[in-house]
Amino acid sequence: MYVCWVEVKDDGEWDFNWCDVGWLRENFDHSYMEEHVRISHFRNHYELTRKNLMVKNLKRYRKTLEREAGRLEAARCDFFPCTFVLPSEYHIFVEEFKRSPGSTWIMKPVARSQGKGIFLFRKLKDIIDWRKDGSRSEEQKDEAQVESYVAQRYIENPYLIAGISNTFSLSIFSLLDLYIPLKAWLYRDGFARFSNTRFSLSSIDDQYVHLTNVAVQKTAPDYDPEKGCKWQMQQLRQYLTAKHGFETVQTLFKEIDNIFIRSLISVQKTIINDKHCFELYGYDILLDQDLKPWLIEVNASPSLTASSQEDYELKYRLLEDTLHIVDMEGRLTGKEKRVGGFDLMWNDGPVYTDVGLEALGSSCLVENTLLGCVNDRQKQLQQLLKPFPGQKRT
Amino acid sequence: MLDESAELSVSITQIVQRLKGTHLHSQLEKQAKECLHKPEIKLETLKDDVRRLLKASGWERKLQNAVYRELHILPPPRHPRAPPEHTKEPLAYMRKAQVNWEKRILKSLNSMCTELGIPLARKRPVPEQNELTNKWNEMGTDEPDLSKFRPVYAPKDFLEVLVGLKNPNNERSEDLTVRSHWGLIQVSLNVRDIPQTREMYPELGLTYGQLGIDDHTHVPPDLFESEHIHIGKKVVSEHDSAAAQQYSRQGCPTGLRAQLWSLILNTTDDPEAITHYEQLKARVIHHDLLVDNLIYKDVKLTASNDDYYFVFEDYLYQVLLCFSRDTAVLEHFNYNCATPPKSCIQSKSGSEQCAVVYPPNGVIPFHGFSMYVAPLCFLYNEPSKLYSVFREMYIRYFFRLHSVSSHPSGIVSLCLQFERLLQTHLPQLFYHLREIGAQPLRIAFKWIVRAFSGYLSTDQLLLLWDRILGYDSLEIVAVLAAAVFAFRAENLMEVTSLASAEAVLADLSTLKVMPLLQIFLFATSV
After folding, report:
1. CA torsion sign, A7 to A13 to A17 to A23?
2. How far is A290 from chain B (nearest CA, A)?
3. pLDDT tens, A45-81?
4. What is the ipTM metric for this complex?
5. Quick check: A198 contacting B, CB < 8 Å?
6. Best mutation site among B310, B376, B462, B512 for testing chain A: the one with the most A CBs within 10 Å?
7. Which of B119, B183, B322, B348 is the most buried (most CB within 10 A)?
8. Partner-chain residue, chosen from B138, B217, B378, that has the shortest CB–CB distance to A239
9. B465-510 pLDDT, tens per residue?
10. A172, A187 Cβ separation under 8 angstroms
């Protein structure tokens, strides 16, 4: 693909900015951006990506849904584990905690990433000790927010591949073009990250077992970089299909779609919509043994460093296709349902695949997402992107 | 010479003999007895009525499947005066080569045993037994010191044996002519060329739909895929082995493959199979074998380092350790030209030495052996089921990949077929590679020995193994090897050393198997 972009130095004028959230915080409000300019974050993306705010938004959305559309519809938001924001919801948390004795909970700092500061506990005593513990106050100094932690019910029956000891979480990428009206894309590739050591509820102190963040895995004593603790999404999908059959897996992936769409809708009205902004989210999803997907976390700055050649190629493709959708060069019509490896998941309403003449026999609509399916993006891009005027088609 | 009908009755007798006393036999008897209580039964037509009822309840089908399975593993027909070794392998020089090879690997195993001072077998003390029982599902967490162990042999050692095979009745000149064979295999066996292979694999032709081609994204599913899946579901519900085998020739859908393969191999969910597996597990707990370390080492070196199979590490131990102790595997030596290795084990009193088959299943694992099991982990997650399927695949197909024989699916024939296909259809390439010291078989051998496991991406590998099962032959592996060379011919023509040739063919993970096979077999002019 012919791209002739020039990197801007220092304070020069820029048309496209792949910025980090720190820069955004400091500069967004002061920058004047011309109409064509694009920037890679929404001003208050943390409404979705900070754990306490996401929980708050999801709970509020769920309540609204229950009021407006009934319990059944609201139940479709039950994809995040029972979560409480601390310290403000401490008392409700304790009530719930006492109601289910013996269950395991996980404590997560709201604004940290890469698995820092996370621990598991089963007894209230553990967190009481922790609150008094001096080490926490250090982290608190970094936090501007008063509410800095969430306590979440730990998923004790994760789906384990090979029936034994490997926990894994799914990393899926979604590109947000606009919040109002909501336009979101889903990338076909993704991966399943395995924890490097064995799962067992008896070893909850071993954070290497339960946390599948690659950053944490890398520091585990027996981490072998050559080992590559990842499966491509295609592998996972095939494995699950071979085990559970086509229909079950189809349902599972529909459920996963549901997570993306509802989580985005829940923050739709809160996020400051700005047509300059777009955002690439990395969703962390966990499957339990009943093949129910759970939302663990959304990252606004998903790790784009690669741990292997295959990983590098995935992230490269992902970025390339992101840039195609952002479409600085104006090559798209805006009516596309697919760009490279991205499928249009939601466009102010559900998106269905184009029903070809041949398939008219089947009258049901098919959702336009193809997570874990074949990603023949090169061919699609060649057909989609017209060459620049005067340029020979390669 | 036995005529056909006499041969048939011999086969029938053999099969009946084998099925007598099996679990299926007692179940059928029980079912027949229960039929007697049914009101439809009349004394005058007793036999026919019982037969009819057994058919309606699906028991006849089960018997059919069992007979079908026995046909797969029936030893070749023999002359009453021919010794069994001659029936298994008619060529004397092959028999001799196999015997020598066996001696070598046994010697290697025994010397390792003496060097390291580790007994071939040892009873575990009770605390160790308990520990192993607790750790059974996560043996992969163990990190025993395996540095002293080396694999007994690697595929390249075996290749040297095959290269050295010579037919004493055949004088071969050293001259390189158009008529001579340019490859490494120096024996002449009857192997199929492309026209003959086309006849053998008609369903791979251009006019047939295939999974691996016609389920591609841009092909509308109504053209082939939907109908094929529909038929697949019917085949599974009919529980028909023969139908499943025929069906598999055009590929198995991912969601049905596990059941289809299970049908083809006639591995049932019988409690008998589960009991057998549990017994093997108990044997593993009670005794430690030297070969266990070889298995550990192999898994750690191969499957654990694979990007996709590392997840199944524990399953591999659970299957392979049991496999070593399964004496039922010895049955396959009825048609395998190899003989099970025997070692001298000290008896309890210490005074006598008796020769016993070691390892108990007669199969000494080599470097890469665990890769035969790894792809199956994608399909089966109950260890006993996984075990049954693997064992059946081994005794039908995989054993032929590491014993010296003239069988058309044997490794020698496969290598020769690969070389001949290449020489006939890509002579320029073959010549060029020869000249730069890169004999094609040196590169392709490792693929063939493992039936491409670990070299292709998993979904492609499973499509290939669909056809191995469907056609009951490993020849497709040789054809694929040639097709891969044909595909990369342009790049290979540019290389100037063995190392660069290896580099061109190092990564097969992006290859699509079925289009390659189809083009090579049906779209190449002959």
Report:
1. positive
2. 16
3. 888 888 888 888 888 998 888 888 888 888 888 888 8
4. 0.80
5. yes
6. B310
7. B322
8. B378
9. 999 999 999 999 999 999 999 999 999 999 999 999 999 999 999 9
10. yes
